[in-house]
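The instructor's notes for this session suggest beginning with a concrete chain rather than abstract definitions. Hand out the sequence below and ask the class to guess, before any prediction is shown, which regions might be ordered.
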Amino acid sequence: MPPFFPQVLLLFGGIEHTSALALFGRQPNTTLPLDRRQGTVLASITRFSTIFFTGDASKTRTANPGFDCRVDILHDLWGFCPSSVIAATDCGLAGSCVDSFSCSKGCGFTNSPLTTFTCSESGAPFCSTALLTLSNNVGPFTYLACGAGPSTDRYFAFTTTAKPSSSSA
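After discussion, reveal the predicted structure:
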């Protein structure tokens, strides 16, 4: 066996490890490489019917009937998608937004082939953002929409407060 053979194996092992870290590049403390099975498990927990504004159990945002809240891990996006669509990447979630104000040159993932939309209606002329964090602290994932003002809301796929209790008098 040539003396360079172990270095070649080490090089391929390093590339595999780098690819796994690139998937979760926003998580600097992630040190374990991911194999295909772990990625499949993560993808299967990215469909929700209800999420929580600031994690508050009393402030829910629920998908309309026939829709789910979906997370596109590949593109760092979330949004509402018909329940019949299997892969979140097939939902056509918006990656960038253009308005006549601070996002006049685009906000979001502007250098990508993702859907771009323009906010021009008088009641919702601004690009607004909603961020979603999953229960395993993966995220945040971005949802872009037109709104009455330029806002950024934070949602969680889990509650950070106790559910309100009902009391009897």
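Then share the key points. Residues 1-44 have pLDDT under 50 and may be disordered. Residues 42-156 form one domain.
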